[in-house]
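FIELD: query
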Amino acid sequence: MTLPNTKISEHLADRPHILVVDDDDRIRDLVARYLTEHGFVAATTANAAEAREAVAAFSFDALVVDVMMPGESGLDLTRALRQKTDIPVLLLPALGETQDRISGLETGADDYLPKPFEPRELVLRLQAILRRKPKAQAGGRPVQIGPWRFLPAENVLNNGASSQRLTTAEVTLLKALIAHAGKVISREELVRLCEMDDTGERTIDVQVTRLRRKLEDDAKMPRYLQTVRGKGYLLRVDD
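FIELD: result
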């Protein structure tokens, strides 16, 4: 496990801190070195257990996680993290493993980049994720969606009795839908507003499914986040 030196972290506090999780020493070190050369502070761990320890001990702006690791996979790690934190996660599935990509989004990952990849694209993906990351101090008027009240300042859904944490991707999508509440918004427009790449329409569909599970009593018969066939999605909010 290689973690950021405390003094260095304080000196570079304005730079994004990234945790790279990969059991391949060569890839892990190459990614960390490239990120460091391009304005990030990079720490590394070789497995999911070490990653959880690092996340508990240090503050990171995002994680880069390999999917195929011995023992606990990157998907398992992402699923476990989502129970406690909304820290952005970018997964690294094997090229052609479509199910891993879809499963990654379903577990709460914010993006994925198949191996092998161009390091520059990894930097651009991380920069896009961090631009979408909600600011803790951001305010905004609460929005009522059925029984749920979306609190922008906290990025959670609350119904008085319980609350649900939203991932960065879910918050970004929900805010885009709220900005067009009561109107149909196309997948293409949502991809643009959420700053996703050219695979974004499938990503939008997965994130909508995740949001529905949190907003709706029956996600298969949605009342608030509806699909308008051939046109896109429509969010109904209470005035």
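FIELD: remark
The first strand starts at residue 17 and ends at 21.
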